[in-house]
Design goal:
The chain is built from 8 helices and 4 strands, in the order E-H-E-E-H-H-H-E-H-H-H-H. The chain is α+β, with helices and mostly antiparallel strands. Strand 2 and strand 3 form a beta hairpin. Helix 1 runs antiparallel to helix 4. The model has no long low-confidence stretch (mean pLDDT 94).
Amino acid sequence: MTNYYSTLEPNTLYHIFNRGNNRENLFYKAANYLYFLEKYGKYLFPVLETYAYVLLPNHFHLMVRVRGREEMQSLTRERGNLDFPSLKDLESLNPHQIVSELFRRFFMAYAKAINKQEGRTGSLFQKNFKRLVVDSNAYSSNLIRYIHANPQLHGIWDDYKEWPYSSFASLLSDGTSKLQRTDVLGWFGGKDEMMAAHSQYMDFKAIGHLIIED
């Protein structure tokens, strides 16, 4: 049986997934997607590197790397006056505890805004987010293709490359981005190669052990 709740280890790549509680929507309007990304950056940037993402009406996928402790400490010093994690937290807690707590705070902050917007109460997200270790760099580019393809795989959008709430366009742009664009393009061999790979037939059997759906 697949273990979707393993300990989050530093310097490790993960495919992370979560959905709305009882399969309810997480996003109701365009501004919600943007607010989610804003809050994600605020809470998780100090502890995660992000390689790819897709946001769909009732769930999301991320491909991230948990930063090492020294990276976390350096970014915390740069940002200053963080409620959590403080430098003391980074010394006393392990990366799993820190990342898990920041996801909890992120989900709570986002849910508070959506509950107010929609006049709802109770949990917005499923309690625990799922994750799987990306156990080989050889799988990275195919997992990114799978993440980007989700809007089309779920019948939400005719051409997933035009879905506005994924990392696909940002990875191909020349604008500033907090995504690990250089690494991602390197896995594909460059922008042209990434575009070509995303236009080819996708057989995801090779990364079946990294795919999370429910």
